[in-house]
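Let's practice the habit of predicting before peeking. Look at the sequence and jot down your guess about where helices and strands might fall. Then scroll down.
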Amino acid sequence: MQHTRPNRHDRHWPSHTATTVPWRSTVRGPRADRETTAVRASIPRTIAGARWTPDTGTAAVLDRAAAALRELDAQHGAGLTALGGVLDRTEAVASSRIENERAGLDDLARAVVGIRANASATAMVRAGGAIDGLVTAAGSGTITESSLLDAHRRLLRDDPVDGRDAGQYRAVQNWIGGGRTPRLARYVPPPPELVPALMDDLFVFLHRDDVHPVAQAAIAHAQFESIHPFTDGNGRIGRALLAAVLRRRGLTRFVTVPVATALVAERDRYFWHLERFRDGRVDEWVRDVAIAVGTVCDEATLTAVLLDEVAAERSIGPCAAGPHAVVGRALAHDPVLTEDRLDALLHGDQGTVDAVTDDLCRAGVLRSVTARRRDRAWVTVAAADELAAFGDRVQAAVRQRANRVGW
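Done guessing? Here is the structure:
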């Protein structure tokens, strides 16, 4: 990983301060943990009125990313709604992988119908709903505390450990890394009593229109992660917030661009950027986010073209007429097909449901991912394959660039 010196623009961004907070361990552990009586917590500076100006090169990268995003949304956002479904799923998967959650589309489909064989998949289903809700709400032109807390509630309300804290700011001290106590933590966020004011300040920053939209999204994400306002789910909500800023600023109307797909390709660099942000170093982070946006837009455009071709072939082939056509049109909205959804589409005719799914599985349009007789689920084969290929292409592009510039 290449470490560079801060430039004059970096120095204008406010770095964190620190404070000592009392600590008493309530768990068994090493003597050093039990004898720790205080830890140093980081205090993010307020950014509602902070000024940052990109250098010429960064400004150009930001503008290219914004143009790519607008073009993707205009050309494929409304006309190919399958893209939205695939990218929403991809973002949930990629964002969760940053948190070391692992699952594929088949696992996600099983989780949708209540099969909990893969706990990571269940978490990702909730993450997808949280992302969609927060980004959709931002389309009104505002990102409110209510919409953010609602997204967190969707994410964690069924969590056996943190469900009781879903939808509310933390009331306890948290930390990142270091085990069961903060003594050796990688990062200790601000004390809980400072969280509401810091979040109020962040919401003011979110509604500024004098910062480049892509830079605003990147900075807002880093500030949110620095505050770490929740007991859990901060990473996934923070990355959803990034997409919400892009929606509020009008760069997207339909598409949620899965920036996390690019970030997960260089996971260590992502965390390195967050650490540098606390020292007032923002330039490289903003550039990396802009490049990530451009990369996923390029690959998402290819995804749109490929899925468009698949839909056209499907409409004149296995889904040309009758109930097969009804199902074929529905597949344009979501790569996951559940029995409940089929019942609604085909008016509860079980015989028709069985006949159509059998036909489409034989034709290679659908793949069953459940073995039971009721509450079944299928995935669209082409969409599942393209979701995986999309992620592979993005990660290959990011790693190729990393090797080229010597990260």
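How did you do? The radius of gyration is 22 Å.
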